[in-house]
Design a protein that fits this description.
It is a single chain. Helix content is 15%, strand content 26%. By secondary structure, it is α+β, with helices and mostly antiparallel strands. The strands form eight sheets. A seven-stranded mixed beta sheet has the order 6-8-14-15-12-10-9, covered by helices on one side. Bound molecules: 2-acetamido-2-deoxy-beta-D-glucopyranose (6 copies). One 2-acetamido-2-deoxy-beta-D-glucopyranose (NAG) binds next to loops. Keywords: Signal. Residues 1-17 form the signal peptide.
Length: 648
């Protein structure tokens, strides 16, 4: 009688004596979510401020995690084997996060034995993260996989698919959620963030490895944009030690910790901070592309100097792109620009001279500079002033003070507060140019905020622009609250012409994390960037239709990866991106100007017409900032680039 009652209880209470493996299952979501489980057993392998991590009995199935986070303030010790009850929960801290399987409201915690040891999973040996893709949902989204447009078309959590940990990164990290793992021989792939966290890969197969030690976004073995699932972020150590300061390429002692989804990514929370074994010691060399006495050869630089400038240099073709958290240019204390920089910079002159010195000593003062993010003369003060004459002459003077070229400059003032960015700042693109090498093609007026420039005959068999410089289709809705492209027609001492378009497309602000629930991840404002590229392509086509042999360079901050091919298609049908056609070509893993959340990548691009491509181009990305020894030494979070083109 007693026995059959016990049998009934067992049969009608499927949650009795559940295992961690059963709770985790082989899908993203636990089948037990919301259910109470009793007599759960496991051994404490890590303790955090909000709970502890249990290791259950190992299982053969690699899809099934046997680790579990218990949200609890109970006092337990590492190595305690426990029996406990509680409720299974799929916790999500923000809407786009993947949920984290947890046991909440634990009760009846019984320590059955102490001082047990659990061997961590040795990543790269026991289990290895895949390369290439994060989610099967990305692969079916389109030919650009996780960069496909449209994005946000499916959710990981909507399905109940079995994990495929050998193929997809999210599945892999989910399959070891809550477990104790070791990253052997970790290599940092960028600087620490503000919380001391940093991204690594360990001793396992990786793709996109660059010469410094980072992982660059490249195409994976199937020809899809690589989402680098083999990298992982190391969080704050659980024992309150402090993570070391790292840079791209720093090697570290092995890291043992638990896998936990938080803040949009799968983290490894280390039991204790690792130590640095070695750090790269070589500083980034300056460009070897320098201005030439040959009037045919033009160098161009591009450097984003935070809310300040993006340079396309005119010398031998330098393309510099640099996101600066502080202004790059040494500003005089009374300069109006300093006001606009007060908010986002520590006004240390050492930082500012670092930037001017980069332009002079690392970019070698290119002949033409594409600048972006030039604020007006009153900085961010919202007072109706739109002229940037003072800002630009301060920049020019700063470069001259550092021994650089005596640049001339041109821009077109926007209408007050119509181009996005900080209110009152009126950021715009501008060109600096070396008047010894280049001049604007004469005969056309400077454009204004609302008049579109057009390709016109110059009356003597050549072509120029109706406004020079002038804005491209500035009243087109594609440019609402965004920067209108600045086009210019240049000529050398010998009369050879070069057309340029300086871009700053709408930024990716509000995008979702790559490891979130939404697939493909939300690529914010991509529809706007697509329209903007189409407008620029129409302009480029109008030039090439009149003058198929025209030398045209379109470049700047595109705020988009070249692997988002649907955005660039109209432009790449007409022009070639310089990295792939340069002599020598820049190897795909060395094409970067920026490191964001572990991924070494390129948002700044330069495209050239067939005439320019046919004469040969050189391009170099100068890693003055991303190769800095530590974050304090960098003048920006973007690296500049230098390009050399021939116009005859
Ligand atoms: C993403 O898709 C979800 C579900 O369709 C929707 O609720 C959400 O608003 C979308 N987000 C964006 C930014 O488009
Ligand atoms: C998920 O799939 C498993 C089998 O793989 C099945 O037992 C379970 O009922 C499914 N759950 C849901 C919510 O569809
Ligand atoms: C790593 O790559 C090598 C060579 O391609 C391959 O033989 C090996 O199986 C890979 N290892 C893992 C764990 O994928
Ligand atoms: C310049 O860099 C800053 C800081 O990273 C960034 O906020 C801004 O969008 C960048 N601008 C351009 C034009 O690249
Ligand atoms: C800015 O400089 C240009 C020429 O360099 C000049 O035409 C214009 O009047 C100046 N604007 C102001 C507000 O000083
Ligand atoms: C731009 O120039 C055109 C033609 O001269 C003029 O009609 C228009 O008012 C100007 N717009 C601005 C904003 O100055």
């Amino acid at each position: 009688m007693l026995l059959s009652l016990a049998l009934v209880v067992i049969l009608t209470s499927p949650a009795l004596s559940t295992t961690i493996a059963e709770i985790q299952g082989h899908a993203f979501q636990s089948l037990y979510a919301g259910e109470k489980v009793t007599h759960l057993t496991g051994t404490v392998v890590a303790i955090s401020k909000s709970g502890f991590y249990l290791a259950g009995h190992p299982v053969k199935d690699e899809r099934v995690s046997t680790g579990l986070f218990v949200r609890s303030s109970a006092s337990v010790s590492l190595g305690d084997s426990l029996s406990l009850s509680g409720t299974v929960s799929e916790y999500r801290s923000s809407r786009n996060d993947l949920s984290s399987t947890e046991l909440i409201s634990p009760s009846s915690i019984l320590v059955t034995s102490s001082a047990n040891t659990i061997a961590p999973i040795l990543l790269g040996q026991d289990r290895s993260p895949p390369q290439g893709q994060l989610s099967a949902l990305d692969v079916v989204a389109g030919p650009d996989a996780w960069l496909s447009v449209p994005n946000n078309v499916s959710q990981v959590d909507a399905g109940n698919e079995s994990l495929k940990p050998q193929t997809y990164g999210l599945d892999f990290w989910e399959s070891i959620e809550g477990m104790l793992v070791t990253v052997p021989s970790p290599v940092a792939i960028g600087f620490n963030d503000n919380y001391g966290e940093f991204w690594v890969h360990g001793a396992w197969n990786v793709t996109g490895k660059n010469s410094r030690g980072g992982l660059t976004m490249v195409l994976d073995l199937d020809g899809l944009p690589d989402a680098n699932p083999e990298m992982v972020i190391i969080g704050r150590p659980l024992d309150d030690t402090t993570n070391p300061t790292v840079a791209m390429g720093t090697t570290l002692t092995d890291i043992t910790g638990v896998v936990h989804f938080q803040y949009g990514y799968f983290y490894i929370l280390p039991l204790t901070a690792p130590s640095v074994i070695s750090s790269p010691t070589s500083a980034a060399p300056p460009t070897t592309i320098s201005s030439s006495f040959d009037s045919c050869i033009i160098t161009i630089g591009d450097y984003n100097v935070t809310q300040c400038l993006h340079f396309l240099y005119r010398y031998l073709g330098i393309l510099l792109s640099c996101f600066l958290p502080v202004p790059l240019i040494p500003l005089k204390p009374e300069s109006p620009l300093t006001q606009s920089q007060v908010e986002n910079m520590a006004p240390t002159s050492s930082h500012m001279s670092a930037v001017a010195s980069h332009i002079v000593s690392h970019l070698l003062s290119p002949d033409l500079l594409f600048l972006q993010e030039i604020q007006d003369d009153s900085g961010s003060t919202n007072n109706g002033i739109v002229s940037a004459n003072t800002t630009l002459s301060n920049i020019v003077n700063a470069i001259m003070d550092m021994g650089g070229v005596a640049y001339a400059w041109v821009d077109v003032d926007p209408l007050n507060n119509m181009d996005g960015g900080e209110k009152g700042g009126n950021i715009r693109q501008a060109y600096l140019y070396n008047p010894d090498k280049l001049d604007l093609v004469p005969g056309s007026p400077t454009g204004n905020a609302t008049e579109a420039t057009a390709v016109v005959s110059d009356g003597s068999g050549g072509y120029t622009l109706s406004y020079n410089p002038g804005r491209i289709d500035p009243t087109n809705a594609a440019w609402k609250d965004s920067r209108k492209p600045l086009a210019a027609a240049w000529q050398t001492r010998n009369g050879d012409r070069l057309f340029s378009v300086n871009l700053q497309l709408t930024a990716k602000l509000d995008s979702s994390t790559t490891e979130g629930n939404t697939r493909p991840p939300i690529n914010a404002w991509v529809a706007e960037r697509m329209e903007q590229v189409a407008v620029v392509a129409t302009f480029s086509q109008s030039l090439l239709a009149s003058s198929p042999d025209a030398s045209l360079i379109v470049g700047g901050d595109c705020n988009e990866y070249i692997y988002t091919t649907s955005v660039f298609a109209p432009l790449t049908a007409l022009l070639s991106e310089v990295d792939s056609i340069a002599t020598p070509p820049v190897p795909p893993e060395e094409r970067y100007t920026y490191v964001y959340n572990g991924v070494t990548e390129q948002l700044d691009h330069m495209f050239v017409s067939a005439a320019v491509a046919g004469r040969g181009v050189s391009v170099q990305h100068i890693h003055v900032n991303n190769w800095a020894m530590n974050i304090a030494e960098r003048a920006s979070d973007h690296d500049p680039s230098v390009l050399e083109v021939k116009v005859c």
